[in-house]
Amino acid sequence: MPTPVSHRVRKRRDALRAAGLRPVQIWVPDTRRPGFAAEAERQAKLVNEADARDPDLARFMDAALAELLADLDDREGRE
What we know:
flat; mainly alpha; 71% helix
């Protein structure tokens, strides 16, 4: 016989499925694992160095931000 907790969980999952949703399991890095912080820092430095060598990146990001801000201004003006 199911426990009250497992019954509630099953009922909630059934309701979510009835609403057209499905469960998805996602695996993410274990941030508590020894060496995680050092590896994240190493990768961040590599990305930073690659970005620094790309002279067009800053212009591209500035243009993208300007476009986003213009779109937001347009939306605020319409409301």
